[in-house]
């Protein structure tokens, strides 16, 4: 699935798919999944991404590892159905997809989800450093500098996410 198209140096339109975008964005910020199953899913998606006929949903739904196929089922299943009354008011695009179709919003949703992931990571790092400060571990000056840097990153992520930061 194509996430974005950009015009290259020679005027050619270049597209980037979701898997390539996620890989690039996480590597750029030196982040990767710690959860073994999610890490395996991402690495297999990257490894198979450019193989002809690779369809991630089909690949992971039929995965031999039961935990991976269960995650795929959970992701692919619609937990909520929009009522018939509300579906009447949806905009239908030229290609027949309605405005709630996931594919029509990937260019906004994928970067946002990655920003939310980074925000969760930074929040966890802040909690760990705060805990170290409470336990009198390590050097206070170093921990406080690291905490300040993380809080600055959190402010920037909050701006991107449209959130407000409340300092305690």
The rough form would be described as globular
* Element string (H = helix, E = strand): EEHHHHHHH
Radius of gyration: 20 Å
The amount of beta strand, in percent, is 5-15%
Mean pLDDT: 82
Structural class: mainly alpha
- Helix segment tally: 7
Describe what this molecule looks like in 3D.
The chain has 168 residues and is mostly helical. 57% of the residues lie in helices and 7% in strands. It contains seven helices and two strands. The protein has helices spanning 18-28, 36-48, 56-61, 66-76, 84-87, 106-134, 140-161; strands at 2-7, 13-17. It has a two-stranded antiparallel ribbon. β1 (2-7) and β2 (13-17) form a beta hairpin. α1 packs parallel to α6 (106-134) and α6 (106-134) runs antiparallel to α7 (140-161). It is globular, with a radius of gyration of 20 Å.
In a nutshell, what does this entry contain?
The chain contains 7 helices and 2 strands.
What is the topological layout?
Elements: E1 2-7, E2 13-17, H1 18-28, H2 36-48, H3 56-61, H4 66-76, H5 84-87, H6 106-134, H7 140-161
Antiparallel strand pairs: 1-2
Helix pairs in contact: 1-6, 6-7
Q: Which labels suit this protein?
A:
single chain; mainly alpha; two-stranded antiparallel ribbon
